[in-house]
Amino acid sequence: MSNIKSFIATHKIEEVLHFSTNHGLVGMASLNAIISRDQIKDMDPNSPLYALNAKNAKFRSDPEWIEYVNLSISRINSSFFRFSRTWKRAPYDYWIILSFKPEILEHQNVVFSTTNNIYHRSCIRKQGIDGLKNCFADSVISKNNTRITRTKDLPLNWTTCPEAEVLYYKTLSLDYLNCIYVEDNDTYDQVVTTLFALTDKTDFNVIINQDKFKGL
Description:
single chain, 216 residues, 6 helices, 12 strands
C-alpha cells in the first residue's frame, strides 16, 4: 500500500470534489473528462464546447496554474462557491458537484495546496505524501496571513483550511467519477437527461444533497 493510499484509508477520505455549472457538465460529458483551462485555447473557436467552457469559468486569478484542474478533499470551498454564485448567469443555469474516487490523489503530477492556490504568500504547494499531509497539518496559514488551527471536532477527512486545493494536471477522466451531487429534483432531472443525451449511459449516480453545496 502506498503512503498516500494509507493516508486516504486512515483519514477516511472518500471523495475529491469539483463544482461546475450546466455548461461545464455538457463539456465534461462530451469529452468524458474535466480539462484544464489552457486546453480550451487549442479548441476550434467555432466549436460549441469552446463557447461552453468560456461560459463555465469567467476567469482565473492564478493564470500560471491554468494547466491544472482545481479540486478539494471531502468538501467544496464554500466561500469561493458563494462568490461564484454571484457571477451573472442565465435563469436556467444550475450548479453541480462532481465527486471523484480518492485514488486520483495518487496520480502523477498532482499538487497539494494548503490553502487557496491564489494566496501566493500563504499557500504551501507540494506533490506526494508530504504535500497531502501538509493539508491536514495542525495549523496552516491562509488569506491575509491568518493562521487556521485544526480543532478536535474537525472531521478527520477535512483539510485544516477549508480552501485547501488539489491541483490535478491537465485532464481528469470521468472514469474516476463516484457520483454527481445536485441541489434539487429539477436539477436532478436536467442532469440525468443531459448525461443520457450526450453519453447514452444511464448508470451515472446522481444524488440530491444540499449540504454538499454548503461545504458540509
